Amino acid sequence: MFEIGNSLREARERQGLGYPEIELATKIRAKYIRALEEEDFTSIPGDAYIRGFLRTYADYLGLDGEVYVDEYASRFITSWRDELPPRPERRRIRRRGRPLERRAILLALAGIASVAALVFVAFRLPGASTHEPGVGTKQKQHRQASPAHRLLLKGVGSGTYVEVRRNSASGKVALQGTVGPGEADKLAGDRFCLLVRKPAGLQITLDGSAVALPAVHNLRVLVTPKRTTRNCG
């Protein structure tokens, strides 16, 4: 065992070195160099600095820095450091806000669950609406778009002039003109009001079934899937 401080001081004095010169070379402040030579380790902030300063200063003086660090560790780490009063234990402070926050979260979750349950029950109760967006509309559109009846007008002989209106005599004109021999016109719908100049010059079928026409010039007739009448109404 040797004295760290005296050994460092003697080595410095033998080489004729001053504190400013050592401070410039080692980057260790002069007050810390004095503290090392006086073994006043409490003036140096922390063991890491003490070890580093010792190693650097001793090596600069041509000594074995590790020997000085080991000597410091064996003599002083278990001496004055251990005599320091123990740190007081930290008291755990209970945060009163946490139970309230948890309670608020639980209440919010319970509210969400209640709303979800009410919505589920509302959809499951008898008479509750089970309508899916777009379903009813599609069904309605499907009914409207169901295939209409097909009326076929075919000219025979010399043909004839034909006027076809939808639904009634005052309905929208669907066809107006002469249907020549061999010509054919197809119309879709449910009710057809026809004005035929010469019924003998025209063959009529509805959905593939022949429609008989009276042999009357300027015939006005109503053709439907159920019947054919001379009253266009």
Characterize the structure shown.
The longest helix has 28 residues, at 97-124. Among the domains are: 4-76, Orthogonal Bundle (434 Repressor (Amino-terminal Domain)); 149-229, Immunoglobulin-like. A hairpin with a 4-residue loop joins strand 8 and strand 9 (228-229). The protein has 233 residues and is α+β, with helices and mostly antiparallel strands. The strands form two sheets. Strands 3-2-5-8-9 form a five-stranded antiparallel sheet, with no helix packed on it. A four-stranded antiparallel sheet has the order 4-1-6-7, with no helix packed on it. Helix 4 (47-60) runs antiparallel to helix 5. The chain has helices at 4-15, 19-26, 30-37, 47-60, 65-76, 97-124, 135-144; strands at residues 149-155, 160-166, 173-179, 184-189, 192-196, 202-206, 209-211, 219-223, 228-229. Mean pLDDT is 82; it is low at 79-83 and 128-142. The chain is rod-shaped and about 150 Å long.
List the helices and strands and how they pair.
Layout: H1 4-15, H2 19-26, H3 30-37, H4 47-60, H5 65-76, H6 97-124, H7 135-144, E1 149-155, E2 160-166, E3 173-179, E4 184-189, E5 192-196, E6 202-206, E7 209-211, E8 219-223, E9 228-229
Antiparallel strand pairs: 1-4, 1-6, 2-3, 2-5, 5-8, 6-7, 8-9
Helix pairs in contact: 4-5
Please list the strands of the largest sheet in the order they lie side by side.
3-2-5-8-9
Q: Name the helix and strand elements from N-terminus to C-terminus, one letter apiece.
A: HHHHHHHEEEEEEEEE
Identify the CATH class of the domain at 149-229: Mainly Beta
**CATH topology tier name of the domain at 149-229:** Immunoglobulin-like
Helix-strand category: alpha+beta
List low-confidence stretches.
79-83, 128-142
Query: What level of helicity do the residues show?
Result: 25-40%
Shape: rod-shaped
Count the E strands: 9
Tell me about the biggest sheet? Answer: 5 strands, antiparallel
Which strand-content bin applies to the residues? 15-25%
Distance between the termini: 134 Å
CATH-scheme architecture of the domain at 149-229: Sandwich
* Average pLDDT figure: 82
User: What is Rg?
Assistant: 57 Å
Q: DSSP helix count?
A: 7
